[in-house]
Amino acid sequence: MKVTVNKHNVQKKIAIINDMTGFGRCSLTVEIPIISKMGIQCCPIPTSILSNHTAYESYFFKDFTDYMDKYVHEWKKLGLEFQGILTGYLGSIKQFEMIERIIHEIKSKKSIIVVDPVMGDDGKLYSSYTNEMSEKMRELVKNADIITPNLTEARLLLGISEGEKIPKVEEMLEKLLEMGPKKVVITGVEKDGYILNYCKEAQHEVKIVKAKKIGESRAGTGDVFSAIIAADAINGEDFYESVKKANDFLMKCIKRSMEYEIPIEDGVCFEEFLGEI
User: Fold this and answer.
1) Which pTM value belongs to this model?
2) How far apart, in Å, are the Cα atoms of 14 and each of 117, 173, 234?
3) Number of domains the chain contains
4) What angle do CA 11, 43, 51 make, to 5 degrees?
5) How would residue 123 be classed by pLDDT, with cut points 50, 70 and 90?
């Protein structure tokens, strides 16, 4: 009997669930070119459309929540298969409920699910986030194979209140793995003038990737980082080496952005280094 091959599924694909921001180098705007350069077809599911991100004084915003089910339904009709699913910023309780359902609808047994639990930074929850949304994020990471929180997000995922003593990063990694993911990297930990990324796989020792801190925190760096981690996972690369690659790439982009005096809200000028990734 002749087996019919779905030609739509010949190439590796990743579904990326995030907002589409026209200017400011974040979310889908950086994830699509980076992952594409790494040899994987990107299929975005926009959660919202913005002219530029919310750190600017004004911006256009269109919520895409009410269209997402119809959007994904067309993919299901095509019989698309995804080697990976990457989620980023989610802006409402309704989106969390919808995304969890969509992931279960489009994932296969071989899909690698990467969750970037975008919730806060610098010790604080983002103003647009609520405690209920934080709880929903805890539920979402249970479905993930890999998660990429910063230190603030790791604390929020573990339910550690603001002002409460934060455990050692190594202990936080263990607790996050117990929630369900197989691999965790806690990013952007500042210590003695360095930025440290702590990564751990289940049943493996903690490994640390560090770099000298340069410049200020910039928009979209978490999206750049998680894009590289997701693409490398789909391509079968070693997790620690992937974290090192993402860190080195970002440091190079930040340095060049400083040389050009790019405003921090404009993100990092990664385009010049895509050929090296």
Assistant:
1) 0.95
2) 18, 26, 9
3) 1
4) 150
5) confident
